[in-house]
Known about the structure:
- By secondary structure, this protein is α+β, with helices and mostly antiparallel strands.
- It has a single domain (20-127), classed as Nuclear Transport Factor 2, Chain: A (Roll).
- 18% of the residues lie in helices and 32% in strands.
- The chain contains three helices and four strands, in the order H-H-H-E-E-E-E.
- The protein has helices at residues 24-28, 37-49, 53-58; strands at residues 77-87, 94-103, 106-117, 120-127.
- The chain is globular.
- It starts with 23 loop residues before the first helix and ends with a strand.
- The structure holds zinc ion.
Amino acid sequence: MPRRVTMTTRSCPCGLPEAYEVCCGRFHSRAASAPIAERLMRSRYCAFVRQDAAYLLRTWHPRTRPERLDLDPGMRWTGLEILDTTGGSAFHTTGTVTFRASYRGGSLHERSRFERVDGAWVYVDGDFPG
Ligand SMILES: [Zn+2]
């Protein structure tokens, strides 16, 4: 199977064409917060790539957030595909994002649920469609 090239060296690890600093980097540094659920989802994937557990925890719903998060330093994420979204816009308070996140040796297919808490999108939980 041919290897798919999902990003250039300049684009953000989340798959969008902008550089990291003006894409997910703004959310990771608290300079901005993700305006829609899909951008939060992308920034969380990007935080997995960059092993930013603190960002993952602070964008997790307080109701479902784990006490701590131990990221596997051997995990090599290779790309993110957004497959479907519902709600999650500036006009919504809930939303879902269905995605496939690939890593060396496999991929994760998840439908994640997001809610706004004090105006900011946070991850609630996910399930694994078919
Ligand atoms: Zn990004």
